[in-house]
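May I ask for an example protein's residues together with how it folds?

___
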Amino acid sequence: MGCLMRLRFLALLGSAAVVVSITLSAQTLHPRPPAQPAPPPSANESAKPIPAQPVLAAGTSLQVEIQRHYPMKAGEAIEGRLVYPLYVNGKLVVPRDTPVHGTVTRLVPDSKERWHGRLNGDFTPFHDAQVKFDELTL
């Protein structure tokens, strides 16, 4: 009987501790300060030239869908289509499904993937292809 009373007491004490900790860690709400008006643009900011044609930064990642299989060779020409459109400053620059052309720049061996393949009885070499797309057909 004494053990059962102790368990009930510990359960009650534990639930009381949870309630107290929740109550003490509650958030309080504070009113937001009034919004400050934006400062007017300075002469230097308004004089920035806007390029006539949008320019994508070098190294921009592209999601490209390859339409067929290609040999794994450095220097191999590859053709594909953009999966997502490209936007610059909120404006559509290149629509999706635009054909892109590029080449395989190098092949990097992937030893981790290779070990998984060997454990499954696949002894073919595995490489990750690094591809550089340098031409869009609009």
Notes: The mean pLDDT is 79. The first strand starts at residue 64 and ends at 66.
